[in-house]
Amino acid sequence: MGTQTRKPENEPHQPVEDPAAFGTYSSPPCFMHELDPSFVGLDGGSERIGDPPLPAGSLDWPAIRQWRKATRTQLIERRLQIGSAERADWSGRIDKALAEALSSASGKLVGFYWPFRGEYDARTLLTGLRTRGVRLALPVVVAKAQPLQFREWWPGVAMSRGVWNIPIPAVGEPLLPDILLAPLVGFDVSGFRLGYGGGFYDRTIAAMPSKPQTIGVGFELSRLDTIHPQPHDMRMDLIITERASTP
Ligand SMILES: Nc1nc2c(c(=O)[nH]1)N(C=O)[C@@H](CNc1ccc(C(=O)N[C@@H](CCC(=O)O)C(=O)O)cc1)CN2
Ligand SMILES: Nc1ncnc2c1ncn2[C@@H]1O[C@H](COP(=O)(O)OP(=O)(O)OP(=O)(O)O)[C@@H](O)[C@H]1O
Q: For a pocket test of ligand 2, which of 232, 234, 235, 236 has the largest count of ligand atoms closer than 8 A to its C-beta?
């Protein structure tokens, strides 16, 4: 398939652009405002993510949960350190692979996300696909430990702020996406993903009356040997990174 192989955001951390006006920008937003200054200028370290290692013989859920927490922190830090040139290059490659994956999505509702903490930004690509009849929806956290709801989004729709200050459509009936893009904090070769640990995507997919096509999107630096999958973890149908699209 070509290039395919397979702490809460508080008030001071406002996204740079006016969410309602998205679509009028010619380049992706800068993430510098989200960087903790201590991350800037640190070495790009090539040590393998996945430290601290899971102690052998401690594969019970409490140990795995602790490992996930530490691993998420490392992976998010690493993602925030991506330089702008690399980010642009990698994002372009992901755009291409994602466009291919969505080539038959006309008439479908695609659940995406308003990027934060250095997540891959699918907004430009997806906004462009609207001309081909692709409809878009954004997730809304209605309550902790509950599935996400999705509300339709288009450029100019009235927005408000949800948890972590993430922009959400201000109003809209709950919709069920046919295709669900899930941001990757981490992922493994089997298609399992790590998110922020809220269980929102796992619960959302589990609760949907018919399973959507699930596409995990993110950067290679999020790759792990295994996330130590648990019964509640939902496997992605497809994982897209700048290097690979699996399966
Ligand atoms: N861009 C983007 N939007 C998204 C998500 C995402 O992963 N990326 N989400 C994907 O889910 C939802 C937001 N996820 C959230 C996950 C956790 C918490 C939260 O309050 N976490 C608590 C700790 C929770 C715990 O550990 O029990 C906190 O940070 O204080 C908020 C939102 C919806 N929007
Ligand atoms: N369908 C479900 N029903 C009940 N609890 C669930 C369900 N899915 C996940 N959980 C719980 O939510 C928590 C999610 O932890 P996990 O490490 O899998 O989060 P995550 O995959 O990083 O989060 P997210 O799905 O938001 O990206 C776990 O405690 C898990 O037991």
A: 232
Structure tokens at 55: 């102690």
Per DSSP bridges, beta strands 213-217 and 193-194 are unpaired
The Å distance, Cα 149 to ligand 2 centre, comes to 16
pLDDT value at residue 203: 98
Query: Which residue CA neighbors atom 34 of ligand 1 most closely?
Result: 139
Confidence of residue 244 (pLDDT cuts 50, 70, 90): confident
The ipTM of this complex is 0.92
pTM given for the model: 0.83
Measured distance CA(80)–CA(34) in Å, rounded:
8
Pocket, ligand 2, Cβ cutoff 6 A:
68, 194-203, 206, 232-233
pLDDT digits (tens, 9 = 90+) for 185-207: 999 999 999 999 999 999 999 99
Tens digits of per-residue pLDDT, 57-72?
667 999 999 999 999 9
User: How much of the chain exceeds pLDDT 70, in percent?
Assistant: 75
C-alpha 184 – ligand 1 centre gap (Å): 12
Cβ–Cβ < 8 Å for 215, 193: no
Q: What distance in Å separates the CA atoms of residue 167 and residue 215, rounded to the nearest whole number?
A: 21
Q: Which atom of ligand 2 lies nearest, measured to the CA of 65?
A: 17
- What is the Cα Rg of the chain in Å? 17
Q: Which two tokens stand for residue 28?
A: 């992706």
